[in-house]
Structure formats: structure tokens, C-alpha cells
Amino acid sequence: MPTQSLTAALLVLGNTEGLPWSTPPWEAITHVHGLPWSTVEGASDDSPAPYVSGWTTRLASKVKAFAEKVWTLKKPDAQDSFVSTRKADNHSSGREAWSKFVRDNQGKWGINRIIDDVLFNAGRAPQQVMRDLDVQKLPSMEDAQIQDCLKPLAERLLGLASYVGTTSLLKQEVARFKVWGWTRLLHGRAFWTRSLDTPPHSHGSAPHIWMVAPHSHGSAPI
Q: Which tens digit of pLDDT belongs to each residue from 35-45?
């Protein structure tokens, strides 16, 4: 399954019935209570945007135009490339504002910690998987059987809006977004912060059961 940076995945997901921004679990996590690029009809360009502190109506409109351009791109790699390009174009302002918004807030949102908790509770934390499979290198999602965690993670982050109607099938965009949690590990080296059997939050200020350091060819995608 294609994987994306968090910056691109959050944007792409926003074209799926307003996900994740329209769901109570996500609102509780991020304290953003609507589509970040929303504006108030008739508001002046310099008036504050309703949901993102520091954004004006003008800037929120530019982010929306940027998002709409991304949504016209069908392939994840094309979406990622457009979101991350440093070439100046008509969407530079919207791109820079969106990237900064995600970069400045992802630590506060604690998405990584939630992913860590779900993986640990399912016995799929990196240390657990490597120990149980008796391997020295973090395996692929398929070999680690991470698919078992996708639905619990989807419900933790997005609630029942993760599913197609009343079925037990995850929306494709939701499943792709969840894959990001494992991909961030595959782009780095795992440095253990505690013993294999220690719960993620049992030591107060050290919330993660693992950390990711950049490998020799760059950093994990954000």
C-alpha cells in the first residue's frame, strides 16, 4: 500500500468527507474544531481565520487552493512531490503555511504516542516484533502483521467515521494514513529507550517505547 508523509496524508485525508477534522476524537486530540482552511463568508482578507491561530482569511484561502490542487493529483507519490517541492509556484504561500502548521503542531497532538500505544498493546511495537520474530532488522508491515492494528488505531484517532458506511471496511484514505505510523520507523534506526516489556507511559517523561533517528541518507518523512 502506498505511504505518504504526514503533511501530505493529512491534506489528502481532508478531501474524504472532511476527515480527520470533522471527527470528535480528532478534535479532542488536536483542539482544531473544523477544516483548518475554512473561512467565514464575507470576512475581510485580513480577518482571523476561524480555526488556525495566526492565519488570516487570505492565508486560509491560499491553503484551501493548495489543498484543492493536491486533491486533483491521484497518485500518492505525485501528491507527496507537490506538497514537498521547494520550487516557487502559485501555491507557495499555501504550501508553506500548511507545512508549518503540521510541523509546529504534530508534537503537541501526540499522534506518535497514540500509534505507539496501539502497537504496544497489540504486541506489535518494534522491540516486540523483532524479539518475537527473532530478527535484528525492523521487518516490513506485512511481515510484522501490522494490519491487525489498523482498525484499533483508526478508531482511536477518527472513531467510526473511519469505516465505509456501516461496514467493517476502512476507507482507503484512512488506511493509507495509518500506514504512515509504521513507515516513519522504516526510514530510521530504532534506539531503545526502555526494556521490551515496559508499557509506553510507565516512566513519565519518556513517553515513547522507541525513538527514530535519521539514517545516513536523510530523515524520516514528516
A: 999 999 999 99
